[in-house]
Amino acid sequence: MTRPTDFTLRGALDALAAREISAEELARAHLDAIEALNPRLNAYVAVTGERALERARASDARRARGEAGPLEGVPLGIKDLFCTEGVRTTAGSRILGDFVPPYESTVTANLLRDGAVFLGKTNLDEFAMGSSNTTSAAGPVENPWNRRNDPDTRLVPGGSSGGSAAAVAARLALGATATDTGGSIRQPAAFCGIAGMKPTYGRCSRWGVVAFASSLDQAGPMARTVEDCATLLRSMSGFDPKDSTSADMPVPDFAAACGRSVKGLRIGVPCEYRLDGMPAEIEALWQQGLEWLREAGAETVEISLPHAKYALPTYYIVAPAEASSNLARYDGVRYGLRVEERDGDLQDLYERTRAAGFGAEVKRRIMIGTYVLSAGYYDAYYLKAQKVRALIKRDFDEVFAASGAKVDAIVTPATPSAAFGMDEKQDDPVAMYLNDVFTVTANLAGLPGLSVPAGLDTQGLPLGLQVIGRAFDEETVFAVGAALERAAAFEALPAVMAGKTARAAG
Amino acid sequence: MSLDADTVRRVASLARIRMEPAELARMEAELNGILGWVEQLQAVPTEGVEPMAGGGAVSLRLREDAVADGGKAEAVLANAPDREGAYFGVPKVVE
Questions:
Q1: pLDDT-derived band of residue B1, with 50, 70 and 90 as boundaries?
Q2: A26 vs A44, A50, A56, A68, A177, CA distance in Å?
């Protein structure tokens, strides 16, 4: 029999339906794996074991009554950016203190409605700002993969959803929620050899998700297969009147789209994504991916997205501007940390609380955002960035145009490199920002983007390909992603995972 | 455009983040590094381009101007670091 932690989400649902395993056994197997491996990986910041077992037993009872939901009994990790009623939520920051939300985010409420069992809250970069999961107040997450010739160097899982990615890769959850503002689902998915989907802006409600940059933030799933991401996304999605930007659109059966043929589809290959100094193996994997799609009957088409090269600097004005506004709410008064001096005034309370509560990267971004929004600089920076953002979106509109479309989807590398060491790229903020060079355009344009594990680099580390699609056409994205997945037949396993006799830890 | 020490101090004050002189100096260097890098946007012609503010294509909905939620003072105050009855507690603001 399959080890319970080795099930795909689809496989677990089948086994649960066939009564080959109970939700309680499934949850317990994952909790045991977390207990064994989390001290090393630090993928979970909180494990809600008792609650999980209680919910799993309730799930078994529902199934026995014939009331099984679409995710009945599936154990998931929840990024600690989603507010969970009665369970401490930190956003990876000290400033939230012991904040315990009195409400449940819409996305997690949807998952619970469909029968999911939450194992705990997963680690992340502070306020989802980062590409390495090294900025968390709860400490860094370790990537479960190691370099073949250098197994002792601890690697980053990517970020910001590094805890979710590491947990799914190491079999500490069947799937996980994540969020993506500039690449925070797709980049860690690629670094950890799993699939991750950032849906169209507006597809998943942002209500109850700790805000970073509201015009860019989107929730999405991570799982070990494209189809599992599709199954999770269907449950996570849906119109929510509590989020003013939530799209009132029907939610299709995304999993069904994974079986669609890609024959006749036109796949765009943007020439601007061919970067100077990009490793040859990334370029080779990209070409291999395009060849796989041609073999499956798709046509590949060279396209140009002339403003794509301005996406990262645009993002690093827009996102900090929105963050500086969103994070103004952490004032030491209503919730979270408070630091005050005797006889200090209110301004002093604000300044001391925020100095103690925010980490270095969050402070940098609040400072940049405050500056670009301040009188005298607003037009030169913020307004300029908003205009360039419009041009970036226009480039996509032109290749995806409803009439006379050049392409149906775009395929690119997911990241410019494989996972790097925990000590690398920490001294230069701009070098760290370059991780998101391929992913950030989809956020600026509000488009869906999927990262699919497609191969290994020469060091044995996973590399991903990205599929970008039209707004609200996740189905084509899933179809192309599933075709890449079938052709790639990615079966490599991380060094650290449940059930594997681990090399001496440390 | 490059930030000087006075501007960095003013921005920190606007952002309500207390910074010691050493941190201000480090921040000045880091911010100038980032701003130097985003400077490349100035080369993009954007005359007549409508700025893009939101993430979605659709215009925002309006809802009826009616109370949809509320009356939850205890839940709202449950995480407050300091409270006085049904109010948040803060240092004295008015003399």
A1: low
A2: 18, 14, 8, 16, 18
The tens digit of pLDDT for each residue in A353-408 reads: 999 999 999 999 999 999 999 989 999 999 999 999 999 999 999 999 877 779 99
DSSP B49: P
In a domain, A197, yes or no: yes
First and final C-alpha spacing in chain A: 31
Q: Would the pTM count as exceeding 0.80?
A: yes
Q: What's the total number of domains in chain A?
A: 2
Q: What is the pLDDT of residue A276?
A: 84
Residue A468 is assigned to a structural domain of this protein: no
The enclosing domain of A201 has a CATH number of 3.90.1300.10
At A277 the pLDDT is 83
Predicted-complex ipTM score: 0.95
φ, ψ for residue A38 (rounded to 5)? -65, -30
Among A260, A289, A305, the domain-final residue is A260
**DSSP assigned state of A209:** B
Phi, psi of A448 (to 5 degrees): -75, 145
User: In chain B, what residues touch A391 (CB-CB under 8 Å)?
Assistant: 44, 46, 49
* Per-residue pLDDT tens over the stretch B43-85: 999 999 999 987 765 577 888 899 888 889 999 999 999 999 9
Tell me whether residue A226 is in a domain: yes
Contacts of A355 in chain B (CB under 8 A): 17-19
DSSP string, B50-62: PPP-SSSSSPPP-
Q: Which domain holds residue A339?
A: 319-385
Distance between CA atoms of residues A120 and A123, nearest Å: 10
Nearest beta carbon to residue A247 from set B15, B58, B78: B58
Cis ω before A136 (30° cut-off from 0):
no
**Active site (annotated) includes residue A160:** yes
B18 vs A244, A355, A377: nearest CB: A355
Which of A366, A385, A404 represents a domain boundary (last residue)? A385
Contact present, A172 and A119 (Cβ < 8 Å): yes
User: Which among A131, A161, A184, A235 is annotated as catalytic?
Assistant: A184
Domains and CATH numbers, chain B: 5-42 (1.10.20)
- Phi-psi sector, A376: left (phi>0), alpha (psi -120 to 50), beta: left
Place of tokens 């009957």: A297
CB contact under 8 A, B61 and A471: no
